[in-house]
Structure formats: structure tokens, C-alpha cells
Design goal:
Helix content is 25%, strand content 8%. It has three helices and four strands. The strands form two sheets. The protein has a two-stranded antiparallel ribbon. It has a two-stranded parallel ribbon with strand order 3-4. A hairpin with a 2-residue loop joins strand 1 and strand 2. Keywords: 4Fe-4S, Iron, Iron-sulfur, Lyase, Metal-binding. It comes from Klebsiella grimontii. Pfam families: Fumerase.
Length: 151
């Protein structure tokens, strides 16, 4: 929705935002990723810069659960949710989160290493998916399917 003034937005009557990014890859082929945006729904992205103390399992799970609940139904659940912890910059973290929500990183290893290798914490993903099924948020299926996948 384009801004008309700071506090007023108008629909462009177009649900297909134009954006493309290119990056060098090995080989002689192009790969395209198209992400559909639901009519009337906005992509939701947020960046939270926290301290290292949040990286305790109970604290992190509670923090991420709270952030999921804050999404509410504004963008029509069920959602594809991705959380990125760490990264080199805010821009990189948000780009990785967007790609993760498209299953782009599904084949990452399930543990890191001393060099900072990216990985998926599948036990945290399972805990967050379970928590999301207990929210009761969302019009479909009695609110059971707030989120469909975690990445």
C-alpha cells in the first residue's frame, strides 16, 4: 500500500510487488524464485536485536512464541514462519529469513560448527510449531493451524 500521508495508505490494486535480486552463482544457468503474495495480505517481517542472554533455550522459545502471537491474524494465517538467529547484518538476516520461509534452506545441516556454519535447529522448530498449534488464533480449523511450516 503506497503512503498518501504518513498515517494514511491506499491500495495500489496490485498484489504483485515488483522486486528482483540477482547474485552470482556457479554454472551457466539462472535460477528464479517467485514468491506469491496473498491478495490483501502483507508480508510480515520484523527485526529484533537482542543480547546474548536471550540464547538460553527457555528464554529463546518464550521470546519467539511471544513474537509469533504478536502476528495475530493481520496477514491471514496459516503462516510460513522463519526465524533467523545471528548473522552478519540486519539486511542479511532478513534476506535469509525470507528465503527460509520459502524452504530454500531446508537442506541445511542440523548442527553448527566452530566456523559459524548455518544450521537448522529442528527441535526448536518442532517446539515452536507445537506452541503455535495451541494459540487458538486464526479463523481456519479452530485456530489450530496458525503456522504451517517453520524454517
Amino acid at each position: 500500500m503506497p503512503p498518501l500521508i504518513c498515517t494514511l495508505r491506499s491500495t495500489r490494486r496490485l498484489t504483485c510487488p515488483r522486486r528482483s535480486t540477482s547474485a552470482p552463482r556457479r554454472g551457466s544457468e539462472y535460477r528464479f524464485l517467485f514468491v506469491n503474495k496473498g491478495g490483501g495480505s502483507a508480508n510480515k517481517a520484523a527485526l529484533f536485536q537482542e543480547t546474548k542472554s536471550i540464547l538460553q533455550p527457555e528464554k529463546l522459545t518464550a521470546f519467539l512464541t511471544e513474537k509469533m502471537k504478536a502476528l495475530g491474524t493481520a496477514a491471514c494465517p496459516p503462516y510460513h514462519i522463519a526465524f533467523v538467529v545471528g548473522g552478519l547484518s540486519a539486511d542479511q538476516a532478513l534476506k535469509v529469513a525470507k528465503l527460509a520461509s520459502t524452504k530454500y534452506y531446508d537442506n541445511l545441516p542440523t548442527s553448527g560448527n566452530e566456523l559459524g556454519q548455518a544450521f537448522r535447529d529442528t527441535s526448536l522448530e518442532a517446539a515452536l510449531l507445537k506452541a503455535s498449534r495451541e494459540f487458538g488464533i486464526g479463523a481456519q480449523f479452530g485456530g489450530k493451524y496458525f503456522a504451517m511450516i517453520f524454517a
